[in-house]
């Protein structure tokens, strides 16, 4: 099971407190993680990535093993520690404002 | 005994204010959806416990929430707003073509007859309808497709469809308004539309009398007289007595004819309310005095309503969807400010009291009168 940590506003939306555990068959990529989380929580469709283009929303970032992987290809494998569930995949609302 | 439920959308969440029919003691519930912008909330006239809310965020986009118990609990419903076919282009601020892009829902208008039916006015301007309680949405594409769409241009606040008026006597007739395109009417259930802007004059656009391009801020109607419309435009307060076919100015003695909301008394179709704002670049009341102006003659002759409202050092704004009336006797009038106050008058505007003073900036106010 991989572990996904949602930003606070999306945790409230789906009604969870901690990380979300997801089972992913096959290669663990950004796309696979997002497909799985949207399948488990349909209300998240459109909140992390655009519904039509499937691109990451501008003020959302992805982190894995301390690295910003937001600009990695969606089908690139995530780090083995994330795929094995030892490290979480972090979905973060960007610090934006002033 | 009757009661009143005031639905308040703010920059950082939703609040529900309730009182009995005396409207003296209020309960404040909220925030719901804390941290999210709630552009609008409105209840179904068929089933008042069915509420819809537009919830959005610069980070996480658009959601639509629905409640079936008067706002105690909510569930997210559909948020797929897909333009019909190839969306095409409208004009950008520089006059160049710009593709239509969905940004947010400004206004939700529940059906007058079907609790599962609800319309959504969105930015970039388009009209959507759901027939399943907000789960799925379809564009009523005749509006954007009637011909003038490619010439529409955003106002400073975006190109939003912010007003939806349903004619209670004619299911096929509907009025909508868009900033900064103007007002439009359908007579065949949203299949075909036409601009209804004759008589509007906007000095700030290339052709002041153009068929489209006017920055309409809000339209109001009394349900007993759906052919009579009142409009607060970017500048000018206007009136139509023929369902929008023609308009005439009724700004009269207002200290400023700029403003955002306009509302009609629940029992007196010739009594209307506006909140004058100093100018389009100074979004606060003239002289720092927050005054609602009431006309009992359908315009032209206006009187300032000041009792209970701050008459010095007040520099808040009242946004277009942030004023509403209840249908009790006597009529209650409500408005919210960008300073977070929600004011109520239980006597048609003669005297005002703040229900709550320190909410986030208020985006919208709707009122339900409950049995």
Give an account of the 3D structure.
The complex is a heterodimer of chains A (about 100) and B (about 375). Chain A has about 100 residues and is of the alpha+beta class. Chain A has a single domain (about 1-95), classed as Beta-grasp domain (Ubiquitin-like (UB roll), Roll), CATH 3.10.20. Chain A has helices at about 10-15, 30-40, 80-85; strands at about 1-5, 20, 60-65, 65-70, 90-95. In chain A, strands 2-1-5-3-4 form a 5-stranded mixed beta sheet, with helices on one face. In chain A, strand 3 (about 60-65) and strand 4 (about 65-70) form a beta hairpin. Chain A starts with a strand and ends in a 5-residue tail after the last strand. Chain B is globular. By secondary structure, chain B is mainly β. In chain B, about 0% of the residues lie in helices and about 40% in strands. Chain B has strands spanning about 5-10, 15-20, 25-30, 35-45, 50-55, 60-65, 75, 90, 95-100, 105-110, 120-125, 125-130, 140, 160-165, 175-180, 180-185, 195, 215-220, 230-235, 235-240, 250, 260-265, 270-275, 290-295, 305, 325, 335, 340-345, 355, 360-370. The mean pLDDT of chain B is about 95. The chains are: A alpha+beta (about 100), B mainly beta (about 375). The interface of A and B includes residues 9, 12 and 47 of A.
